[in-house]
Amino acid sequence: MTQVDVTVVVPVFDTMPYLTATLDSLVAQSIGASRMHVVAVDDGSTDGSGEELDRYAAAHPGLLTVVHQANSGGPAGPCNVGLELAQGRYVFFLGSDDYLGEEALERMVDRADAWGSDVLCGRMVGVNDRYVSQRLYREDAEDVPFPGELLPYALSNTKLFRRALLEEHSIRYALDLRVGSDQPFTVEALHHAARVSVLADYTCYYAVRRADARNISYTSTWRARLEDIGAVMDHIAELLPAGEERDGVLVRHFDSELIKLVERDHAVLPESDRAPLRAGLRALMDRYFTDRIYARLGPLTRLRYCAVRADDPQAIDDLTTVDADELPLVLDGEHVSFHLPDHVDDSLPPDVLQLPLTHARRMVFRVSSDARVTWAEDRLHLEVPTRLDPRSTPYVRAALIAATGLEGRPALRRDRRAASDKPSRRVDIAADGTLTWSGDVVAELGDRDHALWELRLQLDVGEHTYALPVYAEPIEPQQVRRGGIGRRRHYDVEVLVDSESRVLVSCEKR
Questions:
Q1: What SS3 state is found at 132?
Q2: What is the dihedral of CA 403, 404, 409, 411, to 10 degrees?
Q3: Catalytic center residues
Q4: Do strands 475-482 and 424-426 pair parallel, antiparallel, or not at all (unpaired)?
Q5: Nearest Cα to 91, choosing from 99, 77, 78, 79?
Q6: Which of 196, 370, 413, 499 is the most exposed, having the fewest neighbouring CB atoms within 10 Å of its CB?
Q7: What residues pair up with 375 in beta bridges, in sequence order?
Q8: Taking Cα atoms as reference points, which of 115, 119, 82, 122 lies closest to residue 98?
């Protein structure tokens, strides 16, 4: 028998009528029946799902293998059954309430063959308001590092796996996990994979949030969720020894899953539940919360875990009123930090409030939107609403930078130690974050040969300077006079904007 390219494993339990769309998407796959095989495992369904599987198997002989078994309590058992019956070079797992794009399997198999991928992540999107992060799918990637910054947040099993990899390392689903059994399975596969790839240019997988909301992730209690997350973390810890790789995976649980119990559940629970919740979180922190994980978290998340560690329910409650997108930012020349409101206790180590560099970049890049430029007494004035605290003033400058080659570049990072001949001036920052600058454009540019300059803000962060565009509306040209009688010169100064509303300045001697 010729080996097929891919086996699709579908664990099924009471997913009608969604199951019909799932099966329709498999029948319609462009890869064709000769290159694919489907193993659907009915895990004791009572809603007609088993009969629907039999109907499709009869209508499409040779395409579907259907297994009926008593309910096992979760998808892990059916997935393992499907793996034992798999015939393809690759295996793909599909939820029985989700569906595939018509060309999904063909594109994924062909790309995995071309790239030599052991695991391939096809673009996945949510349906019916189901949230699926798109960070992993920004662009095609032939070789993605594991764990890296992205893969720990994409540990579902909805990926294409090379079956030889799974067999070589005897990778199977843990049967003792009530939920989340796909996470240790996926982590083990990613750990052993020689190459992990991302196919982002086609939507392969449509993840459906069911209207009946029967998914256990939406219905379980805080106690069950804490136990389930802890059990998954324990399994991952058994697979990966303590160290950087394990921390790179477990950071996801502290940053995404456990923190929801602090942010959402703790505030509404009675004290009889709040204290055990904090105790359970501390137990996981004692086992897995390392300095590397701490360093990867945002400041408010760090603060919440500090409050949990201190068993301080009031501090946790205070932080529920804080919006990270509204907090002022403080530059000290080395770091970007949050400035907390007065009602929150900030008697904490300074590094708790410091943003990791990846967070800091995203924050400072938003500084220079909605600016206003005006003329006053032959000087160009700039006013920008920002989130910067006045203490940031010594580390922020306005600069006029030669515009050649800068078109289309959102930010320019330079080593602070590198020499620069670009003119720059300090700014003022008011208590409400309003940044102002006033510059004598003619004095700075009148004798320079270059015709077009871009107005930018320069922010010192660590050893780098980030040069950020200023966005504003154009203003009327200005004629400026310089010098006394007999030496008077006239300059035409224009403030223009490019196609993205970035401010450009032209200064020409008449």
A1: coil
A2: -50
A3: 182
A4: unpaired
A5: 79
A6: 499
A7: 380
A8: 122
Residue entry with tokens 């992990």: 196
Query: Beta-carbon neighbour count of residue 311 at 10 Å?
Result: 12
Contacts of 215 (CB under 8 A, 6+ apart): 209
β-pairing verdict for 372-376 and 6-12: unpaired
**315/322 Cα distance (integer angstroms):** 11
Per-residue model confidence as pLDDT tens digits over 378-420: 788 999 988 888 989 999 989 888 876 544 444 444 444 333 4
CA distance 453 to 32: 58
In Å, how far are 108, 115, 156, 161, 323 from 140, measured between CA atoms?
12, 11, 19, 17, 34
Residue 468 makes CB contacts below 8 A (sequence gap 6+) with 364, 365, 367, 368, 411, 456, 457, 458, 459
Q: How far apart are CA 207 and CA 433, in angstroms?
A: 42
In Å, what is the CA distance from 413 to each residue of 281, 366, 416?
Answer: 39, 15, 9
Residue with tokens 């295996």: 91
The rounded distance, in Å, linking the Cα atoms of 195 and 209 is 31
CB 305 within 8 A of CB 261: no
pLDDT bucket at 350, cuts 50 / 70 / 90: low
Question: Domains in the chain, start-ordered, CATH in brackets?
Answer: 6-208 (3.90.550.10), 220-321 (no CATH), 364-509 (no CATH)
Distance (Å, rounded) from C-alpha 395 to C-alpha 362? 18
For tokens 């067999």, name the residue. 167
Predicted pLDDT at 455: 87
Instruction: List 504's β-bridge partners, or say none.
Output: 454, 496
